[in-house]
Write the structure tokens for this entry.
Amino acid sequence: MQVSPAWCAAHPELAADCLALDDAAVAALRADPAALQAFVGARLPALEALAPLLGMAEGMAVGMAPCGGSAYAASAIAPRALAGIPGRKQQQIAHFAAQLAPGPEPLLDWCAGKAHLGRTLARLQQRPLHAVERDAALCAAGERLAARAGVGAQYQCRDVLREPVQAPPKALVLALHACGDLHRRLIDGPVMDAAQGLLLAPCCYHLWLDGPYRPLSALARQHDLALSRNAVQLAVQETVHAPERELRRQQELAAWRLGFDTLQRELRGVDTYLPTPSLPQRVLQQGFPAVCQQLAARKQLALPAAVDWEHYRRAGAQRLQRARRLSLVRQAFRRAIELWLVQDLRLRLEERGYTTTLQTFCAREVTPRNLLISARRR
Ligand SMILES: C[S@@+](CC[C@H](N)C(=O)[O-])C[C@H]1O[C@@H](n2cnc3c(N)ncnc32)[C@H](O)[C@@H]1O
């Protein structure tokens, strides 16, 4: 991790304003994307110029009741039809379902897991269900749940990135939180040749990228931002659900890692970041010196006999405070990057003969991956 990101030199006033924020203000900005965009946008015209686009995305919201009340009503799903599905997934399904108009087309649940989504919607709208999923145990569990719900489901246990998928003709494809190449393969591959429509909520755009993002649509290729894998990952880097205690532990571990980073720079006499393996939070019980000793051993760094551990622990905490403030600027671009990626998917579908719309299908407290592309064959 850089001590100061490169942008600080070009925008010293923005850096100073971020660094002047107190802890409560930082936490409030991190929790409120609109306030964060306003704070950074007021100091950075490039982001301010994106405000209408970002505001439009949030204004497209539908079914925004955070705890599902209106969505359950809108989708007409009896809560008992969602029994056995984990709580947050239930809410996602209820909101997602509100977007599916009734019709005769068979449903194809893409990378379905246990096909909670497909099964619930097939039952609700009396449609045939097909599901594709790589994990055999999830397929078997999904088949059992479908049989119990009286839904005739055909599961294909396939790796969609390596094996062909048999899509029923004129299928309506459902893809809730299909990550990276799983959604790109769907949008660009043969399944959408024969499909009638698609409801897609994409997730984890960076997964399977082995270099910069390669746009799928001609228009995005013309205006390619050459987003690095890191920049693409930024689209999904936010914590909405972690409890307070969990957040505190995450931060403490992050501070310790920065404390070790300060120490290693001095020991090596090289002022650059040294990547170290991730550590489980339980190492916090071992104390800061023991964690540094483990990291040093992994990196074959000899520690001196006496180390002023308190000095490095404090240095790490100070660096974390600084990094959290400066990273607000990166965070302010998160939604813009996500929208760019999603618009590329949408444009590719338009090129392939679909009419598309984009909206949010639930509040970000239900899931921050709440953008939904709806596509219908022209
Ligand atoms: C984030 S989960 C989403 C599951 C489900 N759609 C939902 O919302 O609950 C992604 C699913 O994709 C499946 N998956 C991952 N790689 C796959 C592949 N190459 N082919 C098919 N399924 C895959 C995983 O096993 C997992 O069930």
